[in-house]
Amino acid sequence: EVQLVESGGGLIQPGGSLRLSCAASGFTVSSNYMTWVRQAPGKGLEWVSVIYSGGRIYYADSVKGRFTISRDNSKNTLYLEMNSLRAEDTAVYYCARVRVELSLAAFDIWGQGTMVTVSS
Amino acid sequence: QSVPTQPPSASGTPGQRVTISCSGSSSNIGSNTVNWYQQLPGTAPKLLIYSDNQRPSGVPDRFSGSKSGTSASLAISGLQSEDEADYYCAAWDDSLSGVLFGGGTKLTVL
């Protein structure tokens, strides 16, 4: 079965760090473009970052310099390292597969999401 | 670049046809394809329309997409109660080198 399972969310103080994981099954992470999208409570979707199969990476301005996307090919897992966390980073974080042959914004497989709460 | 703009809400009665608009700019919708997502309460988004007007396998043909210039639309015909959800448009933005989502439209089936 093709699926993504996120983990690593939780309650963290402002200024702290957290690493989210996204384990894939049924397909190979390194052969696909993979992305992170977040959704603040009661708000809309916000794109966070993408990593291409060839390794190119892009970030939203709101997280640039603080977040790092990466993958571990041996574990078939995508990561999001989040540093200098702020209250406005509080959100459900989803990982998703990009169907690049359809569109750079076509995300066909989504994880269930993991909640990150930044609060003192 | 202009973040895609959607109406915050839309509504219709069962069997009706409703449309949801998405207005962007030349750097996103004007030069890249539009995708639509459906998000049911408490669940992850689901790809509903890709490449402006294509439906993934399993999406009913009641859902259709169109695009003209820097604007796109999602149409839902034969509205059903299970269509009550949030709908988002999304497109790559060449100026930002990133994906922009519309603000989302909450569809209510009366």
Q: Quick recap of the structure?
A:
The complex is a heterodimer of chains A (120) and B (110). Chain A is mainly beta.
Q: Compute the separation of the termini of chain B in Å.
A: 36 Å
Strand percentage of chain A lies at: over 45%
User: What is the N-to-C order of secondary-structure elements of chain A (H for helix, E for strand)?
Assistant: EEEEEEEEEEE
The helical percent of chain B reads under 10%
Q: DSSP strand (E) fraction of chain B?
A: 35-45%
What is the averaged pLDDT score of chain A? 97
Instruction: List low-pLDDT spans of chain A.
Output: none
Largest sheet of chain B: 6 strands, mixed
CA radius of gyration of chain B: 13 Å
Q: Could you give a short account of the major beta sheet of chain A?
A: 7 strands, mixed
SSE-based structural type of chain B: mainly beta
Shape of chain A: globular
Structural class of chain A: mainly beta
Secondary-structure element string of chain B: EEEEEEEEE
Q: How many helices of chain B?
A: 0
List low-pLDDT spans of chain B. none
What's the quaternary structure here? heterodimer
| Overall radius of gyration of chain A | 13 Å
Total DSSP helices of chain A = 0
> What fraction, in percent, of the residue positions of chain A are helical?
under 10%
Question: How would you portray this structure in words?
Answer:
The complex is a heterodimer of chains A (120) and B (110). Chain A is mostly beta strands. Chain A is 0% helix and 52% strand. Chain A is globular, with a radius of gyration of 13 Å. Chain A starts with a strand and ends with a strand. The mean pLDDT of chain A is 97. The mean pLDDT of chain B is 97. In chain B, strands 1, 3, 4, 7, 8 and 9 form a six-stranded mixed β-sheet that branches. A three-stranded antiparallel β-sheet of chain B has the order 2-6-5, with no helix packed on it. Chain B is globular. In chain B, 39% of the residues are buried. Chain A binds chain B through residues 35, 37, 44-47, 50, 58-61, 94, 99, 102-108, 110-113, and chain B through 32-35, 37, 39, 44-47, 50-51, 54, 56, 86, 88, 90-92, 96-104.
